[in-house]
Amino acid sequence: MSNPLKTAPAYSKFGSNDKLAKALIDKFPDAGWTLTPRSLAAKIGQLDKGNPTWWLTREKETASLAELLELPVADLGVQSQTSSHLFSFSGFPGLEPLDLTREKSWFLAEARLDPEKSVSQFEGGVLDDWLEPAVRTSFRPPSDFQWLYVPDDLERKLLVKGLAVAGNYEVLIIETLVDTTDPLRGRKPLVVSVDADGGEKDLMALVDRPEGAGLLVIAPFMPAVHETTSSSTHFKGWEQRTSSEREGRLLELSSGAFQRWTWTLLPDWRERLLKGVEERLNHHKTDTHFSAQGVKNWLERFDAHEQWFSTTSDLMHLCQIGHSISERKLPAPSDPDAGKKLVNLLFKGKPLYQSMQIQQLAQARWNHSELSWRGSLPMESWLSLAPPVTGTTVRNELDAIAQGKNQSERKKAADRVAKMLEAGNPDALLSSGLIKKCVQENFDFEHPTLAGLLVRDMLMRQIAEEPLASWALACFDSERRLVVDSALDAVSVEHLIAAAERLFQEAPGSAVTIGASEALFMAVGRRILDGTVIPPALMPIARSVIERMDLTTAEWALPDLWSRPLESEDEKLVWITACWAWSLLPNAPFTMPDNWWFPGWSKSLPELPYWLSELWPDKKCEQVSLAWNQFFSVVDGWLKDVEQPMADAPCILRMGCLMKAAHGAWPVDSAWWNELINCRWAERILLKQLEKAGAGAAARLWPSFLVFERNAPVDRWYVFSWVRVWLLQQLKPVDALNLLGEEDRRYLMQVLFTLPPELRAALLESLALTPPTVRYGGELAFFESFGLSSAPALALFLAHEQFGRAAAICMWRWDAGKAMRLLGQKKKLSTLEQNNLLDTCPAGHATAVMAIVCAAPESFDLATLADWARKHLPIAGRHAEHLVAIIKTAQSSE
Fold it and tell me: Which of 174, 259, 420, 704 could staple 670 via S-S, CB 3.0–4.6 A?
């Protein structure tokens, strides 16, 4: 139907799409409108013209429009097209759905093979065979078993939807692997997306998968595998010999004999997503306040460490907010009502009680310390926490009492309501939009980030005004501790001082005192790293924490905290970083022996302890954690006050030592490059810091890098380092060579293919006076190794006894114009130079050279010229008379 909206009888009541849009929002406020009236009017216009894309995934909005126009939904034209190929962004309804048949999804993450728990990549297939069949490595369909762990919920849904729309393989979306027993017995390649972890039952379901039948499992968790030993996996071992075929297969699966991948967000994923959202809004000419750069700037201030907006779903909710208002109206990091303001913005246009309910529910869950703060909970737990309005009854239950046909029906309905009032109503709680179903019968906050920010608001007030007991015990809870830390980071220094003063009013050695003092100690350490001026009133915090530690063991064991575990590498790093940061302050709180725990307060450091030397990121990782980045930052801060570089600097200090040398503060040691080059994460950090240091850093570091490279084992291939590329890009070729000694230049000739063309030319030029030793017959290959860009330097070699002829050959090949200009110039070439150029002149350039020779024969050595003329006389053409004259003149002069 053409223009189904404007031809509807009820349309005349409004007269325009703008008035229709306004009436639609006013009459149906609960439909979840996320657009301004102007933008909604544009969507109505698109629908009237036969483009229902925006409406396809919005049933409530479509039904409201149909009701207002007094039309059946089918008459709107929304049902005439299928939406199976569209992916809607539930966190940002105002963004156009993605058409997966013709649009590529964003690139925010990549699959990384688990090197410790997976078989060799060459023993199994590769993930591209599943994700990108068009570029797969084999013509055969996948026959291996792969597990792809995708922790990000939105990324997982988008990935699975894309595979389903592509249609290369069958895609099943189920709750657990146990739910797909029959399809698993088939032989065709199969993609299975699961939502919940079935534990051992999952492995039992996989046992029935036929050998060689390809299977890709996409899940929000890694499979549970058992630790294996050489005895249990030996092909002649007891377990293998006495097991049935199914038992053997189960043993194989439970030991993790398949490839496992992790879908890892890229370092700049937030910037990429923001840019993609902006481009999409602009492409569809959506009326919006959204600014990718503006939201990015706000995030860098409010959530620089990705604690709150750490998933694509979280960020899409923020984009939804930034779509409706300018990012300049978003709350500041120190705003004690930041969480409440963000909730109000997200629930804008909805009843006020909804934002109040999420605040009440978040605080209730936080205060029930027996319940976990993160993750899902059973419905019974939620009903015990829910505010009365959400946990009791709903309107239709009350209507059932009033509409009962007789007393018996009304009594049954009333009894049902009474039970709900007593035990809570799951349907009412779910329909409130506060929680969502996660796995099986467990539920979580619909907006966990906003719930956490609301609790942060509460904690900021407690830290500023209330006794320490109101928040300190949460420091002994690994999930709640992070929220406490974020609140401590957000409050003012004055409020930190107030909390510190209350600290010394508590009983020494109590759990409250321990938890609060260690949390304040860590918070002040982070403030020091950020450059905050720390007032003397906060110094007693350090004494209260350090006095509990056994410093006599600091030489071989890292002193432990009482309220925070130090099991993982990151946990140790965070603790060490805080201590090092404190030691950047001018005065220690009390006298202590020199130690690596507080290096800034030590005059002479002892030997590096094992607990510090053992720390170093895996060379295979792509990027290091926030804990490592903060540690490297505090190392830089400490090294500023170190006057002399350490001999044999340990790995953890080398990057800082290099950066100080890059700024010219001290000479560079070539050994500092070791363990950093060809290490991806280290080179990434180095490049960022080098760019800040400027071009002068390249001149200071380049010679040491080449010494390191030259003395390294051949198989290390440091020549391909991106740091090396950066160093050479900053330097002029002449400067890069002038910084080097003769031995370094000779070495560069062995790796010419790794040098920029301009540097190869400069290097060749520098060798003109003292050419290297090259076997006779190898001269041409010598010049060819320098490449075409070295052509300007060839003229310097024309007069050389060994290299002259080869130089002339290359000049004619690479820059014949230069060769002819040399022959025709007023300044006479030497006899050897003329002979080399004339003797190697290709037939294709002979006529042009004849013209030069005939115009000024006196510029050439007569004997040399006569030999060349005699050789080329058969092709002289119109120059024959001149060449004959040259030959005769030479003969008469003999």
Answer: 704
Contacts of 737 (CB under 8 A, 6+ apart): 745, 759, 762, 763, 766
219 forms beta bridges with 149
What does the block give as tokens for 61? 């909005």
SS3 808: helix
Task: Please name the residues in contact with 183: beta carbons below 8 A apart, sequence gap of 6 or more.
Answer: 170, 172, 190, 192
| Residues near 132 by beta carbon (within 8 Å), at least 6 away in sequence | none
3-class SS of residue 127: coil
Q: What ranges make up the beta strands (E) of 359-475?
A: 377-378, 435-437, 442-445
Q: For residue 486, what are its two tokens? A: 């974020």
Reference 342, options 286, 389, 382, 295; nearest CA is 295
Beta strands in 357-400, from DSSP E residues, in sequence order: 377-378
Q: Are 81 and 87 in contact (CB under 8 A)?
A: no
Max CA pair span of the chain: 143
pTM of the complete model: 0.77
pLDDT tens-place string over residues 123-142? 445 788 888 766 555 567 78
- Residue 470 buriedness (CB in 10 A; 0-12 / 13-18 / 19+): middle
* Interacting residues of 406 by C-beta distance below 8 A, sequence separation 6+: none
Taking the C-alpha atoms of residue 684 and residue 297, their distance in angstroms, rounded to an integer, is 22
Please, is 737 exposed, middle or buried when counting C-beta atoms within 10 Å of its C-beta (0-12, 13-18, 19+)? middle
- Cβ neighbours of 739 (radius 10 Å): 17
Distance, CA of 234 to CA of 844 (rounded, Å): 72
Q: Which amino acid is at 340?
A: K
CB-based contact 260:222 (threshold 8 Å)? yes
Reported as half-sphere exposure (CB side, CA atoms, 13 A), residue 143 has a value of 8
pLDDT in tens, 73-110: 767 877 544 457 888 887 888 888 888 888 888 899 98
DSSP SS3 for 383? helix
Structure tokens at 812: 């004619």
Output the pLDDT for position 247. Answer: 61
CB atoms within 10 A of CB 375: 13
Tell me the C-alpha distance between 167 and 176, whole Å. Answer: 22
Q: Are 635 and 655 in contact (CB under 8 A)?
A: yes
> φ and ψ at 244, to 5 degrees?
-75, 175
Spatial distance between the Cα atoms of 3 and 583, rounded to a whole number of angstroms = 73
CB 435 within 8 A of CB 446: yes
Residue 86 is classified by DSSP as E
Residue ranges of the alpha helices (H) in 792-893?
A: 804-814, 816-824, 831-839, 843-855, 862-872, 880-892
Rounded to whole angstroms, the Cα distance separating 703 from 724 reads 11
Are 731 and 698 a contacting pair, CB within 8 Å? yes
3-state SS class at 804: helix
More confident residue, 831 or 469: 469
Secondary element (H or E) of residue 722 = helix 722-730
Beta strands in 95-220 (DSSP E): 98-99, 109-113, 145-149, 170-174, 190-194, 215-219
**Consecutive H or E run containing 40:** helix 37-48
